[in-house]
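Forum: Protein Structure Q&A
Topic: Joint prediction for protein chains with partners

I've read a bunch of threads here and the consensus seems to be that you should model interacting components together rather than docking separate models afterwards. I'd like to see that in practice. Below is the full input, 1012 residues plus whatever partners are listed. Could one of the regulars post the assembled result?
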Amino acid sequence: MVLLSVSTLYPSDVRSKEYAMLLTQADLTKKLDKKKYKSEMPRLQLRAGELQRALHEKGVPVIIVFEGWGASGKGTQINNLILSLDPRGFNVNLTKPPNEEEYMRPFLWRFWLKMPSAGRIAIFDRSWYRRVLNDRVEKNVPKDEWRRAFGEIESFERQITDDGAIVLKFFLHIGKKVQRKRFEALEENPATAWKVTKSDWRQNRRYDRYVTVINDMLKRASFPFAPWTVVEADDQRFASVKILKAVIAAMTAGLRRKRALRPPVLTGKIPRILDIVDLSASLSREEYEARLKERQARLRDLGYEIYRKRVPVIVVYEGWDAAGKGGNIRRLAQSLDPRGYEVVPVSAPNDVEKTHHYLWRFWRKVPKAGHITVFDRSWYGRVMVERVERFCSEAEWKRAYGEINEFEAQCADSGTVIVKFWLHIDRREQLSRFHQRENISYKRWKITGEDWRNRRKWDAYRAAVDEMLFRTGTKHAPWTVVEANNKLFARIKTIDTVIAAIERRL
Amino acid sequence: MVLLSVSTLYPSDVRSKEYAMLLTQADLTKKLDKKKYKSEMPRLQLRAGELQRALHEKGVPVIIVFEGWGASGKGTQINNLILSLDPRGFNVNLTKPPNEEEYMRPFLWRFWLKMPSAGRIAIFDRSWYRRVLNDRVEKNVPKDEWRRAFGEIESFERQITDDGAIVLKFFLHIGKKVQRKRFEALEENPATAWKVTKSDWRQNRRYDRYVTVINDMLKRASFPFAPWTVVEADDQRFASVKILKAVIAAMTAGLRRKRALRPPVLTGKIPRILDIVDLSASLSREEYEARLKERQARLRDLGYEIYRKRVPVIVVYEGWDAAGKGGNIRRLAQSLDPRGYEVVPVSAPNDVEKTHHYLWRFWRKVPKAGHITVFDRSWYGRVMVERVERFCSEAEWKRAYGEINEFEAQCADSGTVIVKFWLHIDRREQLSRFHQRENISYKRWKITGEDWRNRRKWDAYRAAVDEMLFRTGTKHAPWTVVEANNKLFARIKTIDTVIAAIERRL
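Posted by a regular:
Agreed with the consensus. Here's the joint model:
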């Protein structure tokens, strides 16, 4: 058996940071008088509306994040901003602490799901930065988690901006005294008193601690592709104009630049991994029957155990056409409680999926804690079929190795067991299976013209598979090449591998 | 002003009920010996697999519900059933008590979202029947709610089966003593002891009370289009074969019958409502400015109040092309806190939506308690554009009036305020607006060839609109025809109407 676990270091896309202004550098005395405000706003609003339409036509999504102190006027500013926008083209998302469904998945999961489709605007009233602000100050998560969150946020924002999205982040800054006065004013009015909570007052008391943490965030998370803008918000008019101008500038820039066009530099000589696979491995029917029964029973027990221990599991099936994925998945699934797993068949993206980042549809299917998701084909389509058939650009598939490693790392870091199979057969075996399928009536539906077309491109696919195994075999998500000329052997090997991976975790 | 509130009685699709066997009529001594079981199963399983493929190709969705006593073997039976199915073609959904997101919407919302797309199978381990079983026995909901739930379930199951789906419902029945023994056996084994809960034991103690409630459910909810099958489950083998046979029978029948083809009989002379609309209504710019400001302030206050009182609101905008929907919606939205509303632009269904019931995509957008959803066009497309352009059959659009009324009734019954606008202009006004749009550079994007094509079919649309206003103007969801030749007048009237509707509720 060949068990591959090629760990590659993806050459991370190092870019210099442009520090945002820190809170302690902001001049909160900045003001704008009413007259000037009234003369400036209409022009800016008209321009923002025009840009929204242009971005809509070009299919560029925009993400605008509003963070800020309690009572710094986030609601008011969002309202002001959207006055200039067509309400049919945006959504405002209010971010509360995660609910149970959200809590049982990687922390960015719920935000991936809310990413706008091509040409739409998503405004976030609070965002993924809760994790490194409130959760950090209030010690809701341990130190290593919020530190890791910065890395995850960086790759998240880089991935979506590389794909063409515009990301803007505003921090609304007010002074400690101003905040206290605003809380008091809200509390005096019976119609608004409910808006001020205990945790608001706690923030005011711990204002200085928050300043330190916010400044740290501004330093760590100001990326050239997704900068922070600190907005001096003691004066509402000044803040409104500053925000609108920043939005217009970012939209204008985003209209020009569309996607990251330069491919990343990939290094490392690609080993011809598939060459060394010994396809003679096989199993007799008797051995198979005996092993299968015993192994299925074991897997079933483990299924209950991961449910109780809340461990999520991802199993990825990739392989040549006719390598036996369907039958293999069925034997794996048979041993599991159907309430605990889902099989996700993956084919070409549909038209909604096409208007999103290619990883979006897979983020939606990330298993929740205690559940198993089996992907029948997966995100690896990006570096195989989409590469070979030129459905995406060279820059895109080359970038994908790193993006996929980041995606899997985030799942693994949140506790997910990841098992990935490449079901390998040789060309001759494929041919004989194709013929067999054509000749047996109840198997004929399995073979299509596309299978024959793919077969003709065997060598191109083979090179893509070798590179994929090399670049995306990581410690937390290793590939297992399964010798599948003998189906019985392949079925036992996949079940064994899944069992071993789960046992290692438990 | 014309305020329409035409209440129509939709001639409900009365069908006789075919009572399922009641629990008290079941013979729990039924058994199947191992030999017979082993000889029957393989043939049945092969057949079920073939039928799954055939239904997949034909695009027929299948919904299979499993209800039953605690420890009646639902998990085992579901497992057994899916052994014969391709795991890439089905999902198993475990139904727990609703979470917060679900609780804040009509109770069928979460099940609509889980309806399978064309050709897929959805298996429910517990289902919407929780509402009329556990919730009823445990008195989680008042009597009038579970009684109403039966009506809602009937229309839900009728709507999806009319659209071509197959619905099967199994109740797994075991005796009181058998249940007790199974609980004890589970508790003895440390690996399974966790499966038996306090509420399981409570069910055993209250067995007789449950029998009464279950029998009542079997009587009320056995519809010819979605029958209940009581499965004698003291003997597992007998139950497995009975279930598989019932699935095969239903799939075979479902392959033949695809959709409800006969249109319902619609009665009532359709009044020419649009004829009597006085389009001369207008408002001066000064009156408008003053009113708008005052009304927007009022609506903003109401927005906060419905948030606090957890009232959901649906606002539907329909109207002629160029009637001014966009500008109207913008004035309405401006007055609302963006965190409390969403504008949903509706165009032709995308390819995922096309594989579902036409109401599915609107169910997904039902507002949660305390939020406002504004639909810019809506489900009424079914009885307007889809009717006029023949995108659906006569049976389908005629059926839609009743389906829409049921949908809106379910929203209203769960507390939703529903406001529906028809923005009305005359043909001459439309022409002048089309010309104006073509001549003003920043408005040119608003006019397309399709607008001109629709205009040519004015009379057909007009007849469809009259019938729509007549058949779907209900007490809980009245239409308001808005005289929109004067845009300023129209904007104030819509805001006024929304305000009045919310005030009536509060």
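Chain B is about 50% helix and 10% strand.
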